[in-house]
Amino acid sequence: MDMRHRISTALKDAMKSKEADRLSTLRLINAAIKDRDIALRGTDAETDGVSDDDILGILGKMVKQRQESARAYEEGGRLELAAKELSEIRIIEDFLPRQLSEAETAAIVDKAIATVGAESLRDMGKVMADLKGAYAGQMDFGKVGPMVKSRLG
After folding, report:
1. Homologous superfamily of 3-93
2. Which ranges of the chain would DSSP assign to H, the alpha helix?
3. pTM (predicted TM-score)
4. Long-range contacts of range 113-122, CB-CB < 8 Å, 24 or more positions apart?
5. pLDDT tens profile 8-41
């Protein structure tokens, strides 16, 4: 089942069971996907629409935004708003693949460096492209970038 269909089904289930918080988060996800659909109009990608990989990217970005907001709310003493952000993260993560652990990520980075044949920082782009293609949504590339850089540097 593709991501768009999974999200649509979850939205309908949330409506039927009257889960207001889940429903609002799922509507936000749908709106973000539709925004990307609109952005693709007039391009070559329009015929296919937003792919599952694009949706994973959108969801990952939404999680990151909410983590930053929750942190800001906690620092500002607005714990009820931070809790709302954290509950939205849990709902969004239902649609993301399992996140890889530090050890798993390190092993995969080493393997990607060997596979690509990277020897210096010039090859960092090749390694990152390989990782993003194979592990989109499963690892935090903000943390992976410095890890690759330290291994190649």
Report:
1. Uncharacterised protein YqeY/AIM41, N-terminal domain (1.10.1510.10)
2. 3-16, 20-40, 52-75, 79-93, 102-116, 124-135, 141-152
3. 0.74
4. 113/148, 113/151, 113/152, 118/152, 119/152, 120/152, 121/149, 121/152, 121/153
5. 999 999 999 999 999 999 999 999 999 998 888 8
